Amino acid sequence: MNSPSRLPFYIAVFLLIAAGISLAAWRHVELGIPWLTGEQRPVWMVEARVDFDGANDSVVASLNVPEQPPGFHILTEQAASPGYGFSIIDKSGSRRAEWTKRKVTGPQTLYFKAQFVPDPGAESPPPSQQPQTKRLFWEEPQATAVREILSQAEARSSTPESMTRELIRLMQPDTRIQNTTLLVSEDNYLQLLVNMLNHSGIAARTADGLKLEDARRRQQLTPFLQIYNGERWLTLNPKTAAQGVPEDVLLWRQGSESLLDVVGGGNSEISFSMLRQTVPALQLAAMQADGNGLGFLSFYELPIEEQSMFRMLLLLPLGALVVAFMRIVIGIRTSGTFMPVLIAVAFVQTTLAPGLIAFLSVVSIGLLMRGYLSSLNLLLVSRISALIILVIFITAGLSIFGYQMGFNTGMTVTFFPMVIIAWTIERMSILWEEESGKEVLIQGSGSLFVAICAYLLMSAPLAGHLTFNFPELHFAVLGLILLMGQYTGYKLTELKRFTPMKAYD
Amino acid sequence: MDWISPRSLKRLGMLNMNRRNVDYIARYNERSSYPLVDNKLKTKLAVAEYGVKTPKLLQVVKQQHEISRFREMAADLAGFAIKPAKGSGGKGITVITGRDGDHFVKASGARVGAPVLERHLTNILAGLYSLAGAPDVAIVENLVESEPSLARYSHQGVPDIRIVVFQGYPIMAMLRLATAASDGKANLHQGAVGVGLDIGTGKSLNAVQFNRPITLHPDTGLPLGNIQIDAWDEMLEMASRCYEATGLGYMGVDLVVDANEGPLLLELNARPGLAIQMANGRGLLPRLGAVEGLKRPHFTPSERANYAMKTFASL
Q: For the segment B36-92, what is each residue's pLDDT rounded down to a tens digit?
C-alpha cells in the first residue's frame, strides 16, 4: 500500500535525521564537544614570573600578556601577587597585566598564569588600521650601506615577504658582504632588520615567542620578526626567514613595544615555566562555549539547576524511542503507553535493584488495598484520589520502615511519580477484574521489561553525554519515531500469534 | 517455540496490527465519525434511518432523576438489557432474562432486586464503565432472544456475528460463541470461540479459541464444522448499509439473529480485531486489495453484498 504520497514524508524524515546528525557533527568540529565521554585534551599552563627589587617607593609593574596568539586559545588567566592591586588593561592595542602597590621594599615576585588550548585554526585578528612605517635617519656611512643592501634585496624580490626573506639572507654571516658587516653587530641584528624594513616602506616589528616544552622552568622568550603584508602581520624567524609560527611556539608578545615595565623598582626580570595538562574535552568545550557564536545552542550557559533538569528531560526521548520500538516492532504489551518511560526515569534516579524492589512493593501493596476499594463501589475520580493518598502512605511507610531498618534504599521510593503509580495500580486492578491475573502478569512484566530496557539505555553514560551535549541528535530520534509510526510490517509477537495459520499455507 | 515466517504470513495475506492502524483505520475512518460507533445510542439512531434494525429501545436514562421511572417501566417486562451507551468490550451490560416475583433474574441465574439495578444505572450515569470515566447515558433495550438453532452452540450469552465491512463491502465474517472461559461474553480475547463463516454462503469454515484451532465447542461439545447461518444475504446487506449510516470505511459490524425479529444490529466497532482472519483461515489483505482496486464501486448495499458473496469466497 505504498502510495506515492508518502515520498515527501520519507524525504522530510531523512532531512530531519540528516539535519540532526550533521548539526551535531558541525558542533563537534566547531566547539570541540567530544563524541565520547572522558575524552581528554592537552592544555598548556604557562606561568610568567616577574622578579624585581622594590626601592621603598610605590610600584607599577606592567607585563604584556598575550591577546589571541596565533595557534592557541586562551582558556583562563589569573594572577598571584599578594598585597598588590591587579588588573588587566587594554591599552592601545596591547593587553597588559598591571600590578600596583603603594610601598614596596625588598625582592618581589609576581606571578601571572594562563592556560592555552592548542587550536591550529586560531589566528590573531588583523589590525584595525594600517600600521605606520617610521623612516629612521641614518648617518653616513651607514646610510649608504643601508641603501645598498635595500636596493640589492629589492631588486631580487616582488612582495614584502620576499623582500624580507632576501634581506634576511643578505644579513646572514655566510653571505655577508662589506656593507652588512659595517651595520650588523652582536646585539642589534633584529632591531636593525626592523629599522631597515621600515626604512624600505614595509611595516615591521618584533615579537616574542615562548617555546612550549613540558615541565620546563625559567625559560626565556625567543624573538621573532613580524612584517605587515598589507592585510595581516606575518611572523618570520629572523635567522632562517622561515615564515609562520612553529606549532610549539606561543607568541607571548606581539604589537606591544615592551614586554615588562617596572616603575618604582629595579633589577626586574621575567622568566616562564610551563606544564602540559590534560583537561576533559567536554569541560573545555563548555568553557569555550560562551565565546563562540554556536554556544547559544547548548545548555552550558543555563544555571546548574536547570542544566541537571535538562539532563533528565533530554533522556526522555530515548525512553520514548524504546517504548515505540517495543510496542510497534516487537509487540510487547504494556499497561499504559508511557508508564514504562516514567518508571525508567525513576530507576535512573534510584538505580535498578532498589528501584525494582521499591516499585514492586508499592504496586503490590497498592493492589491489595485497591481490592478493598473496589468492594466499596466508589466512583472513578474519588477511587483514584483515594488511591493516590494510599500510594503516598505506602511510600512514606516504606521509607520510614526502610530507614529504621537501616536501609537507605527505602528512601528511594520517593522518586516514583505518585500519580502514575496510582494509575498503574488502578489499571492493573481493572485488568485483573475484567480479564484475569494472567493478563495482569503479562502486561505488568511487559511494562517492567520495557522500563528496564529503557533504563539500561538511559543510564548508559554515553546516552546521557550525547543527549545533553548534542541536543540536536533528538531530531534523529524524532525521525526514527516518525519512521516507526509508518511501520506496517508484522510485529515480532504477531509471528507467534498467527502461527496456527501455518495450517492454511 | 513455534513461529510462522513473515513471508508465509504475507503469502496468506494476513493483515497485521500496524498495517490495520496505518493503512486502513487511519486512512478510511474519519475521526469525527467515531462518536457514532462509540456511543450505542447514537449508533441506534443513525442506522435506523437506513433501515437497519436494532433491539427495541425501551428507555433512555440520561439524568439521575429519570431512574425513578425505570421501576414503573420495568414493572411488566420479562426480559431486558441495561447497557452503558459508551461502554466498550461488553463492560457494564446487565441482562435480565426473567422475573421471580419482585426480583429480576440475571442471565447467570442470580436474582437481584430493583434497588440493585437502580444503583447499576447510577454507576453507568457516573461513567463507571465508559472510557476515561466520562459521564454516560444508560439505555434499556428489549432482550434479544437468540434463535434456538444458533443459541444451542453458545454457552450462556447470545451468539453474535462479526462482519468486517470495508468501504461498504462485507469482506469477512465470523460467528462468536460465548464459553465458560469467556464468562458468557462473545469477546474473543476473553476466550470466546470464533467460527469463520464463508462469506459466499454463510457456512462455517474453521473455529478458534485463544488463537488455537478447535473442532468442538469446549462447553457444549457440539461440532462447529457445519453451522449454517440463515438469511445470509440479508445479513450481509444489512452490514453493508451501516457504511452509509456511519461513513466509516473500515469497521466491524456485530449482528445477532433474534428468534422473532430476525437479524438485529448490536453494535459497530471502528477498530475491529484481527482474530477473524484466524477463524477464517484466510488473510484480509487480498479482499481489502480487491475492494481498493475496484474501478467502479457499487452504489447500493445489495449490489455490494452480492459482489462480496460472488467474489470474496474464493479469495
A: 888 999 999 999 999 899 999 999 999 888 888 888 888 888 889 999 998 877 778
B28 and chain A in contact, CB less than 8 A: no
CB proximity under 8 Å: A 323-342 to B: 328, 331
Q: Are B275 and B188 in contact (CB under 8 A)?
A: yes
Q: Does A92 touch chain B (CB under 8 A)?
A: no
Same domain, B105 and B249: no
Its domain, for residue B109, covers: 57-142
State whether B164 and B202 are in the same domain. yes
Give yes or no for B125 touching A (CB within 8 A): no
Q: Letter for the amino acid at B193?
A: V
CA B267 to CA B246: how far, in whole Å?
12
A385 CB within 8 Å of a chain B CB: no
Q: Are residues B86 and B227 in the same domain?
A: no
Q: Which of A320, A358, A349 is nearest to A337 (CA)?
A: A320
Each residue's pLDDT tens digit, A172-226: 777 666 666 667 776 777 777 888 888 888 888 888 888 888 888 888 888 888 8
- Cβ-contact A42, A274 below 8 angstroms: no
Q: Do B67 and B48 share a domain, yes or no?
A: no
User: How many angstroms separate the CA of residue B53 from the nearest CA in chain A?
Assistant: 30
What ipTM was predicted for this assembly? 0.82
Here the CATH number for the domain that contains residue B171 is 3.30.470.20
Buried residues in A488-502 as b, exposed as e (16+ CB within 10 A): bebbeebbebbbbbe
Are the C-beta atoms of residues B278 and B15 closer than 8 Å to each other? no
Domain co-membership, B62 together with B124: yes
Q: B302 in a domain, yes or no?
A: yes
Question: Domain boundary at B109, B142, B175, which?
Answer: B142
Answer yes or no: is B160 within a domain.
yes
Write down the H helix ranges in A75-188: 142-155, 160-171, 178-183
Indicate the DSSP class of residue A435: S
CA distances from A291 to A74, A121, A287, B311 (A): 11, 15, 8, 73
Which are the contacts of A393, defined by CB distance < 8 A and separation ≥ 6? none
How many angstroms separate the CA atoms of B40 and B148, rounded? Answer: 26
Answer yes or no: are the C-beta atoms of B29 and B250 closer than 8 Å. Answer: yes
Closest alpha carbon to B242 in B313, B166, B139, B144: B166
Minimal Cα distance from A423: which residue of B?
B132
Same domain flag for B163 and B233: yes
Q: Is residue B1 part of a domain?
A: no
Nearest residue of A to residue B213 by CA position? A500
Q: Strand B80-84 relative to strand B204-209: parallel, antiparallel, unpaired?
A: unpaired
Helix ranges restricted to H, A172-262: 178-183, 189-199
Question: Residue B201: inside a domain, yes or no?
Answer: yes
Are B77 and B37 in the same domain? no
Please name the helix (run of DSSP H) or strand (run of DSSP E) that holds residue B49, with its range, or none.
Answer: none
- pLDDT for B194-207, tens place per residue? 999 999 999 999 89
Q: What is the chain B residue with the closest CA to A374?
A: B128
- Tell whether B155 and B226 lie within a shared domain: yes
Q: Looking at CA atoms only, how far is residue B98 from chain A in angstroms?
A: 25
